[in-house]
Structures are given as C-alpha cells and as structure tokens.
Amino acid sequence: MINEDESGVPPVSVIPWNSEINFYSGVGDFLNDLQIKMNGINWTMSPAAAYEVLAWAVEWGQVNHVYGFDHPAWFYVAEKMRERSLELAGTGQNAMLEMRMDEWASRSAPSPSDLLRNFDWFMSLFRKIESIMTREIKDDDVTPSGHVLTLGEAVNGVLMAVDWCSKHHRFQYRTPYGWAVPHEWMDFVRDEVMEWRDALKDQETIPTPSDGTAFSVGS
Length: 219
What we know:
Blueprint: H1 18-40, E1 44-45, H2 47-63, H3 72-88, H4 92-97, E2 99-100, H5 102-105, H6 112-138, H7 151-166, E3 172-174, E4 180-182, H8 184-199
Helix pairs in contact: 2-3, 6-7, 7-8
C-alpha cells in the first residue's frame, strides 16, 4: 500500500510521471535561459559568440546538475571554450564571419505544429548527446586520476552537438544552385572542435598550456 500524507497525495518519489515532469521542466528552463543569453548577444553569431554560448551551455548543465556534467573534464572544456571565445573576439576573422540570425531573432508566434516540430528537433539533439555521453562514461577509458570521462570524450560530445546543428536548416543557407550549406561561423567552429577532439583523442591527463592558444592542446 502506498503511504500518503494527510492530503491524500502520494509522496513525490512514487508519483508515476514525476521524473518526466522534472525533465521537461528542466528543458523549459534551459530554453528560457538560452533565450535570455541570446538576447544578451543580440542574436548575433560568430565563432567567438558560438564558443561563448557553448561554454555557457556546459556551465548551465553543471549548475543545474544535468546528468554527466559533474565530471571534471567539463570544467576544462568550458574553460578552454571561453578562452577561445576571448581569443577570437575583436579579430578580423571573427568580424568577417559574424552574422545576425534574423530568423532566430524575429520569429512570429509559432503555430502548435511549429512548436511540436521545434520541440522534436531539440529532443533529437538532447537524445543524441545523452546517448554519446552515456556510452563514453560507461566505456573502459579511465584517466590516471580515476575519472571515467576523458577530455577527448567530453569534446566529442560538444562536436556531436555542433555537427548536428550544422546539418539543420536554421544553421544553413542555400546556394544559388539550391544546395544547403552551413553558415560560415558554424563551419569554422565545427572544423576547429573536430581538430581539438582529434588532438585530445588519446589524452588522459590535462595538457600543459601552450603558446596561449586555447586549442593548441597537442603540443
């Protein structure tokens, strides 16, 4: 028999959909905070802005106790992405790739079907990342410090998120021939993170700083 308090309501731990409610509430909190973050940068993306948003997302996961983000590798990864954002900010290269994402900033009120499509896209991304990180955390790789998530595995999670986004139409434009091509700032970040992941692939310990460049971690 289920124990109830005086109100007749079962304890939280045995409410059948409690986990689902908490999860979807968390997704809503993330999207709300992401919107505030994007308002703060005027919905303008560039390599520097992308790394800033990625670092913010990792730190949001840590603060809100999202599964897997308590591993020390994430602190290093977020720190390096913030460093890379600062390195790129104010450079000509960053300015050339900067663009205001008007499609994101000037949305009209979505229809119910639009809401479902957008939610399905976010959920597909979350499922992809969760699947990758669960596999990485449960594999046989363990750092000398005893951590079950290596730097390369954490960066691989970032890469999968960036790569997934690069294939979505909201991160693409169409050429005169009708080909869908990722925005240049997105391509730049995806290529860099891929190189960073590969440089860290067999790295078990935290690399020493090198030349003041955030991603020169292989030297």
